[in-house]
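Let us practice reading a record.
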Amino acid sequence: IVFTGSTGELLRTALKEMGVIATRDCYLVTAGKCKPPNNKIKDPAIKHCRKFLIDDLIRVNPVVVVTLGATALFSLTGKKKLSEERGSPRVINIESHTSSASSEIVLIPTEHPQSILRDADKFKLLFRDLQKAVDIARAGGVIPPKPVVDYRVVATEKDAEDFKTDLRGSKLLS
């Protein structure tokens, strides 16, 4: 059983807010099939047990995998800095160590619920990332393109008139 107690309650509550029932719609698994001493992500046990996690994921064939915390991120990608990866969905390829099976999955790293119990300000990050995962799963694993931010500085009346003219001719107002 994974994510029990207050950590599990927090995770299940966040998922429920999105219309996701953890016991029905999710497959919750611990990244460290072998728990490393003192929960250190540098421990070789994480690398050794990765093959069991990968085989689990290939068997379940999820649309999206959300890694909760740095240990889970490290066990799937070898990357240790959650702060550099958090919230950015991307497709990764996972390959079985015991067969020729492989699978492409969407991965979204986020905060571990335990860290939110220590720092409530991180809850919005977890919630936003989980919502992203739910949206991608409901879209069949399609990652939406990043929005293009386009702006124009209007400093003078002439700039404003030119901008209005451009807007009238654009498809934005059609």
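A brief commentary: The first strand starts at residue 64 and ends at 68.
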